[in-house]
Design a protein that fits this description.
Elements: H1 2-20, H2 37-41, H3 44-56, H4 74-84, H5 99-102, H6 114-136, H7 141-165, H8 173-180
Helix pairs in contact: 3-6, 3-7, 6-7
Protein name: RagB/SusD family nutrient uptake outer membrane protein
Keywords: Signal
Length: about 180
């Protein structure tokens, strides 16, 4: 009986000493697969790569998923705006990737409408991440140039969102009364 008690006591003492006598190493940089904004801001190559990723997002292919054929970057979303605003005619619904917007069918409950918001806000997220990394960087002339690129892309995306979703006043009194309520 005493032997079992002493054995259990020794095991408990070994476990408690193993848990209480270890310590953590203080890490300067966390060892993970992603870099922090501070780490990117300290590296000229990382900042350059981040700004290049902002510029390359213009041609992002299938940013929402493989099921939408119109999702081939900024030019695809410009064509959506053109077809939804009736600037060009969608003639063949079977083979036209933009017929949902041109004919205005299947827009209310479909994922296809979300792709516009998703692309634009993903673009804005990339731009804002690059700008926050540039705030951590030094004031080199190259970084000011990069900041100008990012700010111009952010203004472009906000302008596109305003063009598509801003309320426009019209001559109809009934619509104006409903919109002011």
């Amino acid at each position: 009986m005493k032997k079992k008690y002493i054995t259990k006591l020794m095991i408990a003492a070994c476990l408690s000493s193993a848990l209480s006598l270890n310590s953590c190493i203080e890490e300067v940089f966390p060892e993970s697969s992603t870099a922090t904004i501070d780490q990117i801001g300290k590296s000229d190559q990382a900042i350059s790569a981040m700004v290049n990723s902002v510029v390359a997002f213009i041609n992002a292919f299938r940013s929402y998923g493989p099921q939408f054929y119109h999702d081939f970057g900024y030019s695809g979303y410009n064509l959506i705006r053109e077809s939804a605003c009736e600037d060009f005619f969608c003639h063949e619904p079977k083979f036209d990737f933009f017929d949902t917007y041109g004919v205005c069918n299947d827009l209310g409950d479909a994922d296809v409408v979300n792709t516009i918001w998703y692309y634009n806000y993903k673009f804005l997220n990339n731009v804002n991440n690059a700008l926050s990394a540039l705030e951590k960087a030094d004031d080199a002339p190259e970084n000011k140039y990069y900041k100008g690129i990012c700010l111009s892309y952010r203004a472009m995306i906000y302008m596109d969102l305003v063009r598509m979703y801003e309320y426009k006043k019209n001559r109809s009194r009934e619509i104006r009364c409903r919109s002011s309520q």
